[in-house]
Design goal:
Number of strands of chain A: 1
Structural class of chain A: mainly alpha
Number of helices of chain A: 5
Distance between the termini of chain A: 23 Å
Oligomer: homodimer
DNA sequence: TGTTAATATAACAATATTGCTATGCTTCAT
DNA sequence: ATGAAGCATAGCAATATTGTTATATTAACA
């Protein structure tokens, strides 16, 4: 994720207002980052990914925004368009 | 996943009809399995998970069916209700 | 400067998922 | 056999996500 990013985050998370907002948005950020990185690895344009997914460039742009949160179906299509594999798992928290 | 399961699967996947159907349903199966295992680990009933998620037992049952595919928001809530952490990632396929 | 490629945003109808209520099915114990 | 606990299913209204079209923005470059 990058060192600077995590340092800054730890600092901001001390603020409880920020923490609340962040936790609301966190899943959208995380998904957005993952999608953007996956497409970067593939070297494809949004247009090209869109074609492979059977949708449009604007829909791909929206997916990469992370808002609204994409469906699993969309994530799967995006993954296979970008030569990735989608992994979803529940790991014990404690 | 279990040894028997994978053996049987490899055998059935030779059939192209089956393979097509399986690939359609695979995400639902996978999600269902993950949810069921997560709740089993937690030792909670559907009712209890439902309460923690702010929903009803029947909704939890439906999530564990995997159909329709749950939203990421639901998976997140389910994860925290069952003391799990939801992981979603794209891994390079090649 | 003007053109092109790549990405972003908006609006609205269509589709998918959730909340909710009611009800059915099993299993276990009494 | 009856009751209770846990899980499954169904139907419908409410909410969320996607498909689509149109348009804006930005950067690179002839």
């Amino acid at each position: 994720m990058g060192k600077k990013f995590n340092e800054k985050k730890r600092e901001l998370m001390k603020n409880s207002e920020f923490r609340k907002e962040y936790n609301n948005l966190e899943p959208e950020f995380t998904i957005a980052r993952a999608l953007i990185e996956a497409r970067a690895r593939s070297g494809l344009t949004q247009q090209e990914v869109a074609k492979k997914m059977g949708t449009t460039q604007s829909a791909v742009a929206r997916l990469e925004r992370g808002h609204p949160l994409p469906s699993i179906t969309s994530l799967k299509k995006f993954a296979s368009a970008t030569n990735s594999k989608l992994n979803i798992s529940f790991v014990p928290a404690n």
